[in-house]
Amino acid sequence: MFHPVLKFYPNSKLADLESNWGSVSKTKLPQAAFADRGNPEKKDTWEYPHHWVQKGGDLNSEGLFTSGTMYLHKGGLIAAIAAANGSGNGQHASAKVKSHLEAHQKELGLDKSDLVYLDLKSEDEEDQVAYAEVYAPNHIDTDNETMDKKAVEQMAWEFLSSGKINKIDIQHDFQESGCHVVESFLARKDWAPFIEGAWVLGVWCPDDVWEQVKSGKLNGFSFAGSTEKYPATVLVEVAKQIAGVTEKSTSDVIPFHDHTFIINFDNKGQIVSGKTDVVSAHSHLITMGTATQTELEHSHRLILE
Q1: Count of CB atoms within 10 A of residue 167's CB?
Q2: Which residues is 133 bridged to in the sheet?
Q3: Are residues 100 and 31 in the same domain?
Q4: Which of 110, 140, 156 is the C-terminal boundary of a domain?
Q5: Domain end position, chosen among 110, 137, 165
Q6: What is the phi-psi region of residue 203: left when phi exceeds 0, alpha when psi lies from -120 to 50, beta otherwise?
Q7: Cα 166 to Cα 159: distance, rounded to the nearest angstrom
Q8: Which domain holds residue 54?
Q9: Which residues pair with 129 in a beta bridge?
């Protein structure tokens, strides 16, 4: 059977049902799906993917889609904008690339607050690397305490210099999980989606752990260690209410979707109440700052700035 080679054109149209960005196979995307298209003959020079091919079928000799419909991917666009502005490796894209992505951003009506909602997992499915903040300075934690920027910096440096890159357990069971640190950095200003001064880790995950990351069961990093506490008077700004958008579900129980949410906090920064809107005849309660509660066999990750 003869299959014509289709021409993919960049556009700002979203699909009615959008797959999770982490499940999109970036290695099969055509050149038009990238903001930086590099050398047309070398696909490893194409960077900042933000389109995807729905119902992609035929592949050419280089393993790229030649049939299907190409759409803009909202999650992919947010990830590309963050990467273009230095998130992850600190390297910024060219002005031309940023302008291209910002044009899509404006067409979708996304503002700055929308750009913090990125997948916890790596944007490259084959990498199996999860990125998230370990601790952000001057933000009240679950023990009603906080650390300043210098303390977070010292903690991050001590961890890396002591060679503890394989000391990653699951749910504080103190058993090495097979995960190991591949990146560790302190977020600089405007390194979306991370808070300035936050300690961020990129952790490679073996297959069994990666499945838990993709499903949303594992939603973030938490550190264990001893501390020396001392009284201090600090001024911490605590939001009484915030609104946002969850990450899209990865469950196939119902169609891919996300929710808007509102969370109320007390004067100590603890969650008093939180709930999402109703989508597909269901909603989720929110009792913690990393994910919704489970409903209809799925939950949603969320990132609070």
Answers
A1: 15
A2: 200
A3: yes
A4: 110
A5: 110
A6: beta
A7: 11
A8: 21-110
A9: 204
* Residue 8 within a domain: no
Q: Are residues 99 and 148 in the same domain?
A: no
List, as one string, the DSSP characters of the chain.
---PPPPP----PPPSSPPPGGGS-GGG--GGGEEE---TT-GGG-EEE-EEEET---B-TTS-B-SSEEEE-HHHHHHHHHHHBTTTT-PBPPHHHHHHHHHHHHHHT--GGGGG---SB-SSTTT-EEEEEEE-TT---TTS----HHHHHHHHHHHHHTT-TT---STT--S--S-EEEEEEE--TT-TTSPTT-EEEEEE--HHHHHHHHHTS----------------------SEEEEEPPPP--SSS-----EEEEEE-TTS-EEEEEE--BTTB--B--SSSBPPPBTTB--B----
Are 289 and 246 within one domain?
A: yes
Residue type, 23: S
**For the chain, how many structural domains are there in total?**
3
Among 169, 156, 170, which Cα is nearest to 201's?
156
As averages over each run of 10 residues, the pLDDT of the chain (305 residues) reads 44 80 82 88 88 82 86 86 70 84 86 50 63 83 77 91 88 88 88 82 90 76 74 70 78 75 82 88 87 86 69
Q: b vs e for 72-85, b when ≥16 Cβ sit within 10 Å of the residue's Cβ? A: bbbbbbbbbbbbbb
For residue 220 the two structure tokens come to 């973030």
Instruction: Examine residue 245 and state whether it is found in any structural domain, yes or no.
Output: yes
Identify the pLDDT of residue 284.
92
Q: What angle do CA 251, 172, 87 make, to 5 degrees?
A: 60
The verdict on residue 203 lying in a domain is yes
246 and 303 in one domain?
A: yes
